[in-house]
Structure formats: C-alpha cells, structure tokens
Specification:
The protein has helices at about 20-30, 45-65; strands at about 5, 10-15. It is α+β, with helices and mostly antiparallel strands. The longest helix is centred in the last third of the chain and has 21 residues, at about 45-65.
C-alpha cells in the first residue's frame, strides 16, 4: 500500500516489493480505445470564439476613436 503524508500528499512512499496482486492487475489492464469524431460540414472548433473576439475588439476600437 502506498503511504503519504496528509499535509504533503505529493510526498509518497512506495513499497520496494508490492503485493503480487498489483503487477497482475497492472498487466490485466488495457488502455481505452480513442475514437476521433470528426464534424462534417461544420465550422472549425473555436471559430465562433475567434469571430466574437474580433468583433468585440473592433467595436472597442471604434468606441475609443469616437469617444477619445
């Protein structure tokens, strides 16, 4: 079992000889399969945020020119 200090949880003590169940469990695990989903016919991700930022910046610049 891993022991750690509740005040400093990043400082852990790992036993030098773990129980036999741990390696068997680690060997039996398989990584999850990653599925890449592609959007068909849609705008690229983040385009809406980019356009919104450009519009807001343009409005602010116009306001600064008119009022300043």
């Amino acid at each position: 079992m891993v022991a750690y200090d509740p005040e400093q949880p990043w400082r852990v003590v790992i036993p030098s000889s773990p129980p036999r169940e741990w390696p068997a469990r680690a060997n039996s695990l398989t990584p999850p399969t990653a599925e890449v989903k592609r959007r068909v016919g849609a705008a690229p991700a983040g385009l809406r945020a980019l356009v919104s930022g450009v519009v807001i910046a343009a409005v602010l610049l116009v306001l600064i020119r008119v009022l300043g």
